[in-house]
Design a protein that fits this description.
alpha/beta, YbaK protein, 5 helices
Length: 169
């Protein structure tokens, strides 16, 4: 029997059980950063954009987390990390691996990655402060300290890499 994926309530319960200080902002469903810009967030400068990508052979899957106002240069990112050509993973792959729908991509989805196949690349710009990510649901944003999120994902067993993510200009 397949394990049930963690939902928003499960994530909030886990954060509380672990005594991880966090704040939740409920909002209408958002599917892209343009829609996020239309809602009133308490810490917009700390909001994360998440890209779920894979290589052309479907061997390597990566979650790239950057500040919401940035754009990733995937070609430079690939070269920087010694990866094959990258493209966005399909909605089916997103659901299968992270239990998420398009628009709800979040590092907290890595907690659903039972095989720990997905490598997480976090932009160093988040270090030493707060990060805002979906709690596996795009109708809310959970705000927590970046280091707490890093520790949670490391404990789960996914590969975590801090990176100076190359930007499109």
């Amino acid at each position: 029997m397949q394990k049930q994926h963690m939902n928003k309530q499960d994530i909030c319960k886990l954060l509380s059980e672990r005594a991880i200080v966090h704040e939740i902002t409920e909002h209408s469903a958002v599917f892209n950063m343009a829609e996020v810009a239309q809602i009133a967030l308490p810490y917009p400068q700390d909001d994360a954009k998440n890209l779920f990508v894979r290589d052309d052979k479907k061997q390597t899957y990566c979650l790239i987390t950057i500040k919401g106002d940035k754009r990733v240069d995937l070609k430079s990112f690939r070269k920087q990390h010694g990866l094959r050509a990258l493209c966005f993973a399909s909605e089916d792959e997103l659901m299968q691996m992270l239990g998420l729908i398009a628009g709800a991509v979040t590092p907290l989805g890595l907690l659903n990655d039972a095989q720990r196949r997905v490598r997480w690349f976090l932009d160093r710009d988040f270090l030493g402060g707060r990060i805002g990510v979906h709690p596996n649901d795009n109708t809310a944003t959970v705000w927590l300290q970046t280091e707490d999120l890093l520790e949670l994902i490391k404990e789960h067993g996914n590969s975590v890499e801090l990176s100076d993510i190359p930007q499109k200009t």
